[in-house]
C-alpha cells in the first residue's frame, strides 16, 4: 500500500517559487488502479514523481507498506525504484544503440524474466524485435517503452500519458493489455492523463487543481478500453 501524507513540493525560490503540491495526502491500495486528472500545472505529474520516488517531497511522507521511501538514502531509494516500480512516460527513453529486443530485455533482466518476448508480441512488435528505435514510428517506440516497463514485473506501475503518442486503435489495444495484465498479476497502477474518458477504466479517480486534490471518486464498475470514449 502507498500512503502519501501531507506532501509539499515547491520549485524555485523567492518570487519565482511555484508550489506544485500543497499538503497532498493520498492512499493507493495494493492492486488498485488510480488515475490522476487535472489541467496542466495542477500538480498531477509532480504527485506521480513523488509517489514513485523519482523526486522527494520538501516535507511529508511517502510510505510503501510502512517504509517512508522519502527518507531513504539515495542509494537505497535508487535500489527501491529498480526493484519495485515500473515507469511509462510520454518520452520513450529508449537506448538508440539497442534494438527492440534488447531495450525490453533491459527491464526483464532486472528481475530475471526470461519470457519477456511474450510481452513484445502482445504489444504488437513481434516482427520488429531486431529494429532500432530510429527505425520505428513514435507510437512503436512508445510500445517498446511500455513492454520494457511490463517486462520488469513491477509491484507498482506509474504511467504518464502512456497513450499520448498512439493512435486510437493502438491506444485502446495497449490499455486493454495493460489492464488485463494488471488484473492477472495484481500490481498497482497510478496513471496521469488529460483524457477524462480513461478514468472510467480505473478503480479510483483523483482530480487535482492548483497543487491540491479537490475530488476523489471510486468506480463501482471498471469499463474496458473498448467501452470508453476517446
Q: Can you walk me through this structure?
A:
Helix 3 (100-109) packs parallel to helix 5 (138-151). The protein has a 6-stranded mixed β-sheet. The chain has a 4-stranded antiparallel β-sheet with strand order 2-1-4-5, covered by helices on one side. Helix content is 30%, strand content 27%. With 230 residues, it is of the alpha/beta class.
Query: What is the N-to-C succession of helices and strands?
Result: EEEHEEHEHHHEHEEE
Individual helix count: 6
Trace the largest sheet across and list its strands.
6-7-8-3-9-10
Globular, elongated, flat, extended or rod-shaped: what is the shape? globular
Whole-number mean pLDDT: 93
Proportion of residues in helical segments: 25-40%
Structural class: alpha/beta
Measured distance between first and last alpha carbons: 31 Å
Which residues sit in consecutive blocks of at least 5 with pLDDT less than 50?
Answer: none
Q: Beta-strand level of the residues, as a percent range?
A: 25-35%
* Major sheet characteristics: 6 strands, mixed
Count of DSSP E strands? 10
Radius of gyration: 17 Å
